[in-house]
Specification:
about 70% helix, single chain, flat, mainly alpha, about 5% strand, about 180 residues
Length: about 180
């Protein structure tokens, strides 16, 4: 039954938006990611990058962040955050394959902004920086990772991260 607006409807005690008249950013985001995946699987990397980039730019942060007590909103928030992080990793890989290292670095930095405990992103950043001879940035990245893990989880970086760090230190000392 409709009540006062053609955009909003009441159905089985749920307030819903008219899908024909309203566009929901979260739905569009997921749709763009799916379309990008299809293009990527089909070998159309240029179109995939375009769709992925559009999805990345559409994501503006957590879904309904003010609704901290709604289980459904929390579930959707976590789902979208995970999808966004996966998207950033996928974009970073594609950019790196195309030699667009600055764009790959930006994707990993954005992933860390969303979740400061993504050790894989720190590792990728350290590798990218080191590969470009940006050893100070690689060292700083390790230190930020170390600080985040200590503050949030009372732990240290894992063996892979520490090994990368030590190899970078060796490169610095041998040059």
């Amino acid at each position: 039954k409709d009540f006062g607006s053609s955009y909003i409807h009441l159905h089985d005690n749920y307030v819903i938006l008219d899908q024909e008249l309203c566009q929901v950013d979260a739905s569009l985001f997921s749709s763009l990611v799916r379309k990008g995946e299809e293009k990527e699987k089909g070998g159309d990397i240029k179109s995939a990058l375009s769709l992925y980039t559009e999805a990345m730019e559409l994501y503006k942060g957590d879904f309904l962040p003010e609704e901290v007590h709604l289980i459904e909103a929390d579930r959707k928030r976590e789902e979208l955050r995970g999808e966004y992080i996966d998207l950033l990793h996928r974009l970073a890989i594609l950019h790196e394959k195309q030699g667009a290292f600055k764009k790959a670095i930006e994707c990993h930095k954005k992933a860390i902004q969303v979740d400061a405990l993504l050790e894989e992103s720190y590792q990728k950043l350290m590798t990218l920086y080191s590969g470009k001879g940006m050893y100070n940035e690689a060292i700083r990245t390790y230190e930020v990772c170390e600080k985040a893990l200590k503050a949030e989880l009372k732990t240290k970086p894992d063996a892979i991260t520490t090994s990368l760090y030590n190899k970078i230190l060796e490169k610095i000392q041998s040059s």
